[in-house]
Amino acid sequence: MAQQQTFVIIKPGVLQRRLVGEVVARIERKGLRIEAMKLITMSRELCERQYAEHKGKPFYDGLVAFMSSGPSMPMVVSGEEAISTMRKLAGATNAADAEPGTIRGDLAGVTQKNIVHASDSPESAEREIALFFSPEELNPWSDGNHDWIV
Ligand code: CMP
User: Domain 3-135 has what CATH class?
Assistant: First the structure.
Protein backbone atom coordinates (compact mmCIF):
# COMPACT_ATOMS: atom_id res chain seq x y z
CA MET A 1 0.00 0.00 0.00
CA ALA A 2 1.66 3.18 -1.19
CA GLN A 3 1.39 6.69 0.13
CA GLN A 4 0.12 8.92 -2.68
CA GLN A 5 -0.83 12.52 -3.34
CA THR A 6 -3.98 13.31 -5.26
CA PHE A 7 -5.63 16.46 -6.56
CA VAL A 8 -9.16 17.51 -5.66
CA ILE A 9 -11.30 20.49 -6.66
CA ILE A 10 -14.30 21.48 -4.59
CA LYS A 11 -16.31 22.83 -7.52
CA PRO A 12 -18.22 26.09 -8.00
CA GLY A 13 -21.60 26.10 -6.29
CA VAL A 14 -20.40 24.23 -3.20
CA LEU A 15 -19.64 27.52 -1.44
CA GLN A 16 -23.10 28.84 -2.37
CA ARG A 17 -24.67 25.68 -0.94
CA ARG A 18 -22.59 26.11 2.27
CA LEU A 19 -21.27 22.57 1.84
CA VAL A 20 -17.49 23.15 1.91
CA GLY A 21 -17.24 21.98 5.53
CA GLU A 22 -19.32 18.88 4.76
CA VAL A 23 -17.02 17.88 1.87
CA VAL A 24 -13.80 18.63 3.77
CA ALA A 25 -15.12 16.73 6.81
CA ARG A 26 -15.68 13.61 4.71
CA ILE A 27 -12.12 13.78 3.37
CA GLU A 28 -10.72 14.23 6.89
CA ARG A 29 -12.90 11.53 8.45
CA LYS A 30 -11.48 9.04 5.96
CA GLY A 31 -8.04 9.85 7.38
CA LEU A 32 -6.64 11.60 4.31
CA ARG A 33 -4.30 14.54 4.90
CA ILE A 34 -4.97 18.00 3.44
CA GLU A 35 -1.58 19.32 2.31
CA ALA A 36 -2.69 22.33 0.26
CA MET A 37 -5.94 24.18 -0.28
CA LYS A 38 -6.94 27.56 -1.71
CA LEU A 39 -9.96 29.52 -2.81
CA ILE A 40 -9.79 30.73 -6.41
CA THR A 41 -11.99 31.60 -9.36
CA MET A 42 -10.64 29.62 -12.30
CA SER A 43 -10.03 31.47 -15.57
CA ARG A 44 -11.42 29.91 -18.73
CA GLU A 45 -7.84 29.23 -19.80
CA LEU A 46 -7.08 27.32 -16.60
CA CYS A 47 -10.30 25.28 -17.01
CA GLU A 48 -9.34 24.48 -20.60
CA ARG A 49 -5.92 23.24 -19.46
CA GLN A 50 -7.40 21.24 -16.58
CA TYR A 51 -9.98 19.55 -18.80
CA ALA A 52 -7.98 19.37 -22.08
CA GLU A 53 -8.68 15.62 -22.39
CA HIS A 54 -12.43 16.35 -22.69
CA LYS A 55 -12.12 18.92 -25.51
CA GLY A 56 -14.61 18.08 -28.27
CA LYS A 57 -17.00 16.17 -26.00
CA PRO A 58 -20.61 17.40 -25.90
CA PHE A 59 -20.32 18.56 -22.27
CA TYR A 60 -16.96 20.33 -22.69
CA ASP A 61 -18.14 23.92 -23.36
CA GLY A 62 -20.67 23.77 -20.53
CA LEU A 63 -18.04 22.30 -18.20
CA VAL A 64 -15.54 25.10 -18.90
CA ALA A 65 -18.26 27.74 -18.44
CA PHE A 66 -19.41 26.15 -15.19
CA MET A 67 -15.95 25.62 -13.70
CA SER A 68 -15.05 29.28 -14.36
CA SER A 69 -18.43 30.59 -13.11
CA GLY A 70 -17.48 31.17 -9.47
CA PRO A 71 -15.09 30.34 -6.67
CA SER A 72 -13.78 26.83 -6.24
CA MET A 73 -11.23 25.20 -3.96
CA PRO A 74 -8.34 23.20 -5.40
CA MET A 75 -6.70 20.89 -2.87
CA VAL A 76 -3.83 18.45 -2.54
CA VAL A 77 -4.78 15.45 -0.46
CA SER A 78 -2.48 12.62 0.59
CA GLY A 79 -2.66 9.23 2.24
CA GLU A 80 -2.51 5.52 1.60
CA GLU A 81 -3.70 4.84 -1.96
CA ALA A 82 -5.06 8.39 -1.89
CA ILE A 83 -5.99 8.41 -5.59
CA SER A 84 -8.38 5.45 -5.54
CA THR A 85 -9.52 6.24 -1.98
CA MET A 86 -10.53 9.77 -3.00
CA ARG A 87 -12.27 8.52 -6.17
CA LYS A 88 -14.32 6.06 -4.09
CA LEU A 89 -15.15 8.77 -1.56
CA ALA A 90 -16.32 11.02 -4.44
CA GLY A 91 -18.50 8.34 -6.06
CA ALA A 92 -19.45 7.87 -9.71
CA THR A 93 -19.12 10.86 -12.09
CA ASN A 94 -22.73 10.56 -13.22
CA ALA A 95 -24.85 11.98 -10.41
CA ALA A 96 -27.61 9.41 -10.95
CA ASP A 97 -25.13 6.52 -10.65
CA ALA A 98 -23.31 7.80 -7.56
CA GLU A 99 -24.04 5.54 -4.60
CA PRO A 100 -25.52 6.94 -1.40
CA GLY A 101 -22.73 7.33 1.14
CA THR A 102 -20.42 8.94 -1.41
CA ILE A 103 -19.95 12.72 -1.71
CA ARG A 104 -21.69 12.84 -5.09
CA GLY A 105 -24.27 10.22 -4.15
CA ASP A 106 -25.35 12.24 -1.14
CA LEU A 107 -24.90 15.80 -2.43
CA ALA A 108 -25.02 15.94 -6.27
CA GLY A 109 -28.18 15.89 -8.37
CA VAL A 110 -26.63 17.09 -11.65
CA THR A 111 -23.57 15.49 -13.29
CA GLN A 112 -21.92 18.76 -14.35
CA LYS A 113 -22.26 20.09 -10.79
CA ASN A 114 -20.94 16.93 -9.19
CA ILE A 115 -19.39 18.69 -6.17
CA VAL A 116 -15.80 17.45 -6.51
CA HIS A 117 -13.16 16.56 -9.05
CA ALA A 118 -10.57 13.95 -8.05
CA SER A 119 -7.59 12.78 -10.13
CA ASP A 120 -7.98 9.40 -11.83
CA SER A 121 -4.30 8.31 -12.00
CA PRO A 122 -0.85 9.16 -10.61
CA GLU A 123 -0.03 10.89 -13.92
CA SER A 124 -3.16 13.07 -13.75
CA ALA A 125 -2.51 13.87 -10.09
CA GLU A 126 1.03 15.04 -10.83
CA ARG A 127 -0.08 17.12 -13.82
CA GLU A 128 -3.04 18.69 -12.03
CA ILE A 129 -1.14 19.48 -8.82
CA ALA A 130 1.53 21.28 -10.88
CA LEU A 131 -1.16 23.20 -12.78
CA PHE A 132 -2.68 24.64 -9.60
CA PHE A 133 0.11 24.73 -7.01
CA SER A 134 3.75 25.78 -6.88
CA PRO A 135 6.04 23.45 -4.88
CA GLU A 136 6.24 26.05 -2.06
CA GLU A 137 2.47 25.88 -1.59
CA LEU A 138 2.57 22.18 -0.67
CA ASN A 139 2.70 21.37 3.04
CA PRO A 140 3.48 17.69 3.56
CA TRP A 141 2.92 16.52 7.12
CA SER A 142 2.76 13.26 8.99
CA ASP A 143 0.80 11.92 11.92
CA GLY A 144 4.08 10.96 13.60
CA ASN A 145 3.43 9.45 17.02
CA HIS A 146 -0.21 10.46 16.78
CA ASP A 147 -0.99 7.91 14.09
CA TRP A 148 -4.59 7.15 15.09
CA ILE A 149 -5.54 5.57 11.77
CA VAL A 150 -6.02 1.82 12.13
P1 CMP B 1 -14.84 15.61 -13.23
O2 CMP B 1 -14.46 14.48 -12.36
O3 CMP B 1 -14.44 16.97 -12.82
O4 CMP B 1 -14.26 15.33 -14.70
C5 CMP B 1 -14.86 15.81 -15.87
C6 CMP B 1 -16.15 16.49 -15.60
O7 CMP B 1 -16.99 16.65 -16.72
C8 CMP B 1 -16.98 15.65 -14.65
O9 CMP B 1 -16.41 15.62 -13.38
C10 CMP B 1 -18.34 16.31 -14.79
O11 CMP B 1 -18.42 17.51 -14.04
C12 CMP B 1 -18.33 16.65 -16.26
N13 CMP B 1 -19.06 15.63 -17.04
C14 CMP B 1 -18.65 14.38 -17.33
N15 CMP B 1 -19.58 13.74 -18.06
C16 CMP B 1 -20.58 14.62 -18.20
C17 CMP B 1 -21.84 14.57 -18.85
N18 CMP B 1 -22.24 13.45 -19.49
N19 CMP B 1 -22.64 15.64 -18.79
C20 CMP B 1 -22.22 16.77 -18.16
N21 CMP B 1 -21.05 16.89 -17.53
C22 CMP B 1 -20.24 15.81 -17.55
Answer: alpha beta
User: Of ligand 1's atoms, which has the minimum distance to the CA of residue 118?
Assistant: 2
Q: What are phi and psi of 93, to 5 degrees?
A: -55, -45
pTM for the model: 0.96
Dist. CA 135–CA 45, nearest whole Å: 21
Instruction: Please check the confidence at residue 26 and state whether its pLDDT lies above 90.
Output: yes
pLDDT level of residue 66 (50, 70, 90 thresholds): very high
Q: What is the pLDDT of residues 131-145, one digit of tens each?
A: 999 999 999 998 887
> Hey, whose CA ends up nearest to atom 4 of ligand 1?
117
Is the CB of 124 within 6 Å of ligand 1? no
- Ligand 1 centroid–CA 41 distance in Å is 18
